Amino acid sequence: MLSPSIILKSQLEGAKRLDAEYYQPEYLNFDNLINRFKKFKISEIADVVYGTTPEGANFVDSGVPFIRSQNFDMSIINEDDLVHCSKKFHGKNKKSSIASGDILFAAVGATIGELAIVQNSIEDGNINQNIAKIRINNREVSPYFVWIFFNSKMGQYQIERLITGNAQPYLNSEQIKEFIIPKIKRQDLFQKYFKDICFEAEKSKLLYHQAEKLLLEELDLENFGGQNDSLFTIINLSEAKKVVRLDPEYFNSDVNKLLDKIKKISKPVGDLVSIKKGIEPGAEEYKETGKQFIRVSSLSKYGINDSDQKCLSEELYQKLKDDFQPKKGEILLTKDASPGITYVLKEDIDGIVSGGILRLKIKDKSVEDEYLALCLNSIVGQIQAERDAGGSVIKHWKPEQIKQAMIPILPKPAQEKISSLIRESFVAREKAKELLDEAKRKVEEMIEKEE
User: Fold this and answer.
1) Strands 180-182, 131-136: parallel, antiparallel or unpaired by DSSP?
2) Are the beta carbons of 283 and 355 closer than 8 angstroms?
3) What is the pLDDT of residues 6-34, one digit of tens each?
4) Is residue 166, in this structure, part of any structural domain at all?
5) Beta bridge partners of 292
6) Domains in the chain: how many in total?
7) Would 176 be classed as within a structural domain?
8) Distance between CA atoms of 360 and 274, rounded to whole angstroms?
9) Distance of alpha carbon 155 from alpha carbon 117, whole angstroms
10) What is the DSSP string of 291-335?
């Protein structure tokens, strides 16, 4: 909600903006705080370059890492879901190549204002047209301070203030160059935060991958490549009639090979869990603030992210919460668009799940919740999701199909060991988030106390 602001006429003279939103109290307070410091414009300390996308968004299986804003995670780059551009494309677009310490801004659309800094593990890469790269070229300024500053509420105020009132949010390079950075002491503190966040994020990823590796070893699937070299698959007509499918993807022999390996120890999902659907209240009900509305785009196997977060009003939330509020211990599973993404809730959420998400609750105590989620996220679940949902422009994994998906049930000690690794992974991830929040509070405190 907008609050009234009283400003002097002299503050408006020569101003490029006359709309009331630009002069909200929090923005004016930011101006007063920053004016106590020596300041730099981004144009004075950095180069700003936008990326581009290969024609037709044609990516290659191996090549140069290509960063999109969906790869931003905890303000660094999540390397698990990167696509790649060709070396030829990369060579033609060297200006937008990235290196450790570069700050990447999401500058277009719903994720505008999100940012990440490139970590040391990414030696080379490129960016798409929705990202602006900021490369600091002034030794008086630490890129790690700039990174945290723009993550803080004070840095975000500048972004919000500039994009207010635009139908399609967009930051061009000239606008970004006008952003202000205060010159403060002890900027080196933030490189330490960067290293610690990267350490915990990498630890989380390694623990998760250890759990995946252990699962596949226990199932004798560690060398299962999921690559079907056969040019054809022979089936009986009765099989096609049974599933009402004739597309070759459904009868991919790799799926059958995997299911043959696990079928003796497997149970269908429907025998293991009860299932509740989410709800679609309609885009007209979306709010910028209020109770969380968890959509498919909000969910990853690592948790619920804040990217492009939508909210519902308190009134609508109260009407829906008895039937659609997720609870601690439930497993959230995407069924639409990106089917098969699964996450176990670590706490109750004051929010509602969308129609593209199912809530699973364990009813068979022979299976651990974290273990089941990992099975669905692994090749075991993904290859079944791809088979069932294949052939559609927008993929849908139907609840009845999900109930029939097969889950291998390992002995309890093996499940508990795998689940323990998953829980350790999430503890490290939470530590990384806490460090990022601590760094943001630190920079805000330093500016407010004029350190």
Assistant:
1) unpaired
2) no
3) 555 455 444 555 555 655 667 667 778 78
4) no
5) 311, 351
6) 1
7) no
8) 6
9) 15
10) EEEE-GGGEETTEE--TT-EEE-HHHHHHHHHHH---TT-EEEE-
Neighbours of 267 (CB within 10 A): 14
Tokens 């804040």 belong to: 306
Find all residues with CB under 8 Å of 236, minimum gap 6, and list them: none
Query: What are the structure tokens assigned to 279, written together?
Result: 């709800």
Token pair recorded at residue 386:
């791809």
**Secondary structure (3-state) at 120:** coil
362, two tokens: 């364990």
Asked if residues 52 and 96 have their Cβ atoms less than 8 Å apart, the reply is yes
- CB neighbour burial string for 146-183, b if at least 16 within 10 angstroms, e if fewer: bbbbbbbebbbbbbbbbbeeeeebebebebbbebbbbe
The CATH number of the domain holding residue 260 is: 3.90.220.20
State how far the Cα of 83 lies from the Cα of 125, in Å rounded to an integer. Answer: 10
Residue indicated by tokens 């709800």? 279
The pTM of this model reads 0.87
What range does the domain containing 323 cover? 221-409
Q: Tens digit of pLDDT for each residue in 380-432? A: 999 999 999 976 678 999 999 999 999 999 999 999 999 999 999 999 999 99
Rounded Cα gap, residues 448 and 438, in angstroms: 15
Q: Going by DSSP bridges, is the β-strand pair 303-304/299-300 parallel, antiparallel, or unpaired? A: antiparallel
Question: How many C-beta neighbours within 10 Å does residue 95 have?
Answer: 12
Place of tokens 């070396």: 87
Closest CA to 132 of 148, 112, 162, 110: 112
Q: In whole angstroms, what is the distance from residue 192 CA to residue 435 CA? A: 10
Distance CA 22, CA 164 (A): 7
- Around 402, how many Cα atoms within 13 Å sit in the side-chain half-sphere? 27
